[in-house]
Amino acid sequence: MKKFHSIHLILPGILLALSALACGLSSAPSEPKTPITPISIGSDLSQIDVCQAIPKEDIEAVMARTLVSAPEHFEYYDTAGTSGCTYDAGKDSDGEAHFGYVVLTPIEVYNQQPLYLNVDVSGIGESAYFNNGADARQLWVKIDNKVAFVVAFGDVAREDGAKAIAKLLVAAIK
After folding, report:
1. Which of 45, 64, 70, 157 could form a disulfide with 29 if both were Cys (CB 3.0 to 4.6 A apart)?
2. How far is CA 33 from CA 36, 71, 136, 142, 161, in A?
3. Is there a contact between 174 and 48 (Cβ–Cβ < 8 Å)?
4. According to the model, what pLDDT value does residue 2 have?
5. Are 91 and 85 in contact (CB under 8 A)?
6. Is the peptide bond before 155 cis (omega within 30 degrees of 0)?
7. For residue 12, how far is the Cα from the chain centroid?
């Protein structure tokens, strides 16, 4: 009888531990908390190190995942005059890739985006919109008609996180 009673007490503990592990693997996104290093906009955006400016902890908070490699320099699909950073958080157990990128672009790139399922966003920069890009849901932001940027997360879209990173980036751009 005591053996049955012991198993009865241990089983809930095992289930609780498994639940805690499962929650840790799929934790909820959180707000980024570390300010972005101030960025001075000049005539050559390609000289700006976006990976250095944006703390990886902010990206990990938004993605609710740890990056599997160091952030890497990224040009927006080989568009001259852009400078960005790409973030890789690996794949989950379902094979879903978790990635993100932030890229500073000339205004022309912002203005020339093919729009698909775009939605205007207020309260960030001079103007902003979400757009379905080729690889991810993208948040495009224009600042004072001098620079634009895109923040994107996929395969799992993180619209609230993209907005939070965008607000930090707008505050950092001088």
Report:
1. 64
2. 9, 18, 24, 23, 11
3. no
4. 53
5. no
6. yes
7. 37
Give the global pTM: 0.82
Q: Pairing mode, if any, of strands 97-105 and 127-132? A: unpaired
Query: Residue 79 has which token pair?
Result: 């568009």
For tokens 């923040």, what's the residue?
A: 151
Q: How far apart are the first and last CA of the chain?
A: 73
- Average pLDDT in the 95-119 region? 92
pLDDT at res. 21: 34
- Cβ distance 89 to 52 under 8 Å? no
- Phi then psi for residue 132, to 5 deg, are -85, 105
**Distance, CA of 172 to CA of 170 (rounded, Å):** 5
pLDDT tier at 163, thresholds 50, 70, 90: very high
Instruction: Provide the CATH topology of domain 30-172.
Output: Protein Transport Mog1p; Chain A (3.40.1000)
Kindly state the helix (H) or strand (E) to which residue 12 belongs, with its residue range.
helix 2-25
Nearest 5°: the CA angle 86, 92, 97 is 35
Token pair 């395969």 is found at 155
b/e per residue 100-110 (b: at least 16 CB within 10 A): bbbbbbbeebb
